Input
Amino acid sequence: MINPYFPEPDLFSVRLGPLLGDYHYWLSRSRSLLEFEEIDFLDTQQQSDLLGRVHQTLSEVIAARSLFKATYGQIGIELNLLETWHDLVSECWQIMIQLRLGQSN
Output
């Protein structure tokens, strides 16, 4: 995770901190939704699997944020890992949108 050879660490640090905060926020909201809401268009196994992935990813994000803070932003994260996190947040957004649209009808 730590890459001291990153060419522009200040720029990366400025962008990574808020990004990790966003992932933490959206994954926490998704976890609450999946733990406490019954989602009609997901079966129990789908909801449980998604909740498990959210828990795992949230743990990874919390660890990354801790390292980020402990190193004063001098860490990097592999792009494929960020992409995986982003895909999961996007999947959760789609469920939130679909759930909200269903509640408004």
Summary: The chain has three helices and no strands. The mean pLDDT is 90. Residues 24 and 59 are 9 Å apart (CA to CA).
